[in-house]
Write a structure and sequence with these properties.
alpha/beta, single chain, six-stranded mixed beta sheet, UDP-N-acetylmuramoyl-L-alanine:D-glutamate ligase, Rossmann fold, about 475 residues, Protein-Tyrosine Phosphatase, Chain A
Amino acid sequence: MRIDIPSQIPPVSELGSVFFIGIGGAGLSAIARLMAQQGTAVSGSDAFDSAVLTALRAEGITCHVGHDASHLDGIDTVIASTAVRDDNPEIVEAQRRGLRLWPRSAGLRSVMEGRRTIAVAGTHGKTTTTAMLTCALIAAGAEPSYAIGAEVASLGANARLGSSDLLVAEADESDGAFLVYEPEGAVVTNVDADHLDNYGTVAAYAAAFDEFIGRIGRFVVLSADDAGTQQLAALARARGLEVLTAGFGDDADLMGQHLRVDGTTTTFTASLRGVDLGPVELAVPGAHYALDALLALGAGLLLEQNVDLLIAGLAAYTGANRRMQSLGEAGGVRVYDSYAHHPTEIRADLAAARAVAGDDRLVVAYQPHLVSRTRLYGVEMGEALSAADRVVVADIYLAREDPDPAVTSAIVVDAVSGPAASSGGPVAGLADVLLSELRPGDLLLTLGAGDITTVGPAVLAALGGR
């Protein structure tokens, strides 16, 4: 559902009692936590129970399973996920009562009021870069608040209210949310066309990032390794922003060198305009994570934090949920899970998984996300999956969309070249399909932004029982 952004967004203290529809999602749960920690009466609902709801309840937030109009008794403000449909009973009731009804972006903007915000935007890598920057700033003693689009083990949660006026926030572009914010500083990881169901064209998607640059107050850190962000540099300088580029090419201000991915770790050295900053070691595998770390380091330096402490904070980062996350091992099979759903993300995570797997077999179970995305990128998804040794593709996760008989996971399967690839059907039966394929020594990687996240634990449980 698309909800209009209000022309005036008051601070949290003026919202009264706030109800979140879809509170179990990564974005809304972060905002709910920050509001609750400021003393606001917060409650919410979600379609299914989850570990997130359990954690929120432990923090004093009332969470309902299922949606019902009665949940809005005594509520002043309603904040809804974009995945919620127009006929949701709580949406209908909020409109009937004339309650303040906001999209997620307005809720986060309200939290930003009175804070120095550092917003992390980009098509890929937002969550990891936001989490890395947060870890680095905490290690440097900056005590930031933060709102991240995933649970982060080394932080304990996806959001926290810090003691300083600094706020690090993941700025999502999928529904144009990042165009509501006015950050002091920003990081843009890359610009790689996506979410065309919302933007319509590649040009419109790129133009949104141009507009975002115009909303930044002081500085921006841009990837020197991405064509899309390189085009933003001149625009940012023309608008008077301090620009720092970061990457592994010779033209980067903050340059990474000697990159090495060794099993589950990644190392490189960093230098700023020719001045050596020392080695950086990450406890996560992947060249794309090294670039995220460089971008985070750049933002920390522009915030005038101690470089050694920032690097120590990056080393303390152990990953975010669903970002090449190790779920465990059973029956000789290692299982990882990732949120990757765009061809660029799939390629990056398969490269990282290959480094972890070594000479062992890499089995990938992938769930395409959205009919619209599969229509545009299904062939590229299959081509990216070709780096695996065995590929199983589940049915498309529809989310907010309706099915289209002409767009199925077969588009992805047919584009895989090299490894054996097949359709795995509904996610509910995917674990059984995989169990018939897996053998000791394999590394299983589940990929997708939908409910395929349930498959890895089911496989581990079955293998453990075996």
